[in-house]
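[User] I wish I could look at a protein chain and see how it folds. I have put the entry right below:
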Amino acid sequence: MLIGELAEQAGTSTRMLRYYEAHGLVRPARAANGYRRYDEAELRVVREIRELLAVGFGLDDIRPFVACLRAGNPSGDACPDSVAVLRRKLAEVDDCLDRLGTVRRHLQEQLTHALATRPQ
């Protein structure tokens, strides 16, 4: 399939596909006329990239998932490097939740104090 077809099927733009290619995540074959040609495997890779980006992964975090798919695994999270990224990202999310919990408790205390000491 051509780049426009891949973009449509993957729900992205041709510009984003070129961006992924520039970062080494997508690897089109080149036709004799220089056009980019993609197969179903690249569609799977692009869908994986899009899903991971949607939940906050960066391009460097995505590389192990793409490598895992390219190695012939049924999913990008089947490899040890991908699992390591998932563990690290989960730890980052847990840390953010802890910090948000602290901020929430502080705000609740401030609100309680403000309501208790406001003039009647």
In short: The beta strands are 29-30, 36-37. The two ends are 71 Å apart (CA to CA). The longest strand covers residues 29-30.
